[in-house]
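Task: encode each sequence below as structure tokens.

Item 1
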Amino acid sequence: MQEEIDLMMEMAEDSMKGAIDRLQKELVKVRTGKASPTMLQGITVDYYGSQTPLSQVANVGASDARTLTIQPWEKNMLEEIEKAIFAANLGVTPMNNGEMIRINIPPLTEDRRKDLVKKVKAYAEESKVSVRNARREIMEGIKKAVKDGYPEDAGKKAEDNAQNLTNKYTDNIDKYVDAKEKDIMTI
């Protein structure tokens, strides 16, 4: 029985780690008013009939705090990259000069910053729900094991471990969100 509880605990922790990973990926996409190549991370380009990540058809960089540059390896890809950026609906306009694409990142207004913070908090709440769901599943498994003959005091200890694990991951979520909120609200 102890092996089953340990396995459930491992599965719950993996699920909680997954929630943190998803949160981190979502937070990277939220722009903070500073140019960062990671803003374009999820964009795919039609490269000779197949969807290919932007980073595999061009060199993406930040020339300064407000400008991203995209230098395609093939000049005929400029138009496709432009289309992909428009389709991604990032709220930015690519400028094609025939050699490369520049994207100027406009400064965020106070209202836009507040909206982004709300968005970040919504992502955090989704992650916390995932963590709590993993906790609920393990708690149900422990209670079932106790009914099936697992010692009650060991069951209580396992429940405490599950709660401590949940608290650890919830605190991590709060730390990531606080850091991102600070980054967004910094002018």
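Item 2
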Amino acid sequence: MINDRILPWFALIVATGIFFGYVRPTWSDTIGKINKTIASDDKALAAAHDYDARRNTLAKARNDIDPENLKRLETFLPDSVDNVGLVLDLNALAARSGLSISNIDVTNAADTRPGSSAAPAKNTDPTSSIDLSLSAVGTYASLQSFLVGVEKSARLLDVRDITVKGSDTGVYTFLMKIRIFWLRS
């Protein structure tokens, strides 16, 4: 009879000891960590699916853009500086306008924020720019024609500064600073 009363209590104590000594630590440590990892992986998988859906939507939207308009946009704001092509374009524009370019130099890397003349800062702006210093000789009418050509250029150019050195002959020396823009990679 004593065995009938002690055995259930002994079994309860052993079961409680097994629960608190083995089952609970195993569940909360190992299995709990695995559950957290699974939840984190599920979030990452959901984010990957969202990213993939967004990428497909943007690819479809890009494919819907008229190729001619896309080409004009890439000319307006290219994805690289292309110094040689730009210098050739500016030289051809100057020749058509009647100006003679004597010197083109890269003066500094410019900050693309409006009103800033400091070196470029780390920012999230997708564009970058650089200043060119340009020396040209010609008449005032030639300069006007050149500036109209820059204004109507398919490439994004910003004339920042013009200095005119006078002359009695009607042929002037013009010093210009032009800022060019491109998309960062």
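Check on item 2: The chain is about 55% helix and 25% strand. Confidence is low (pLDDT under 50) at residues 111-120.
End of task.
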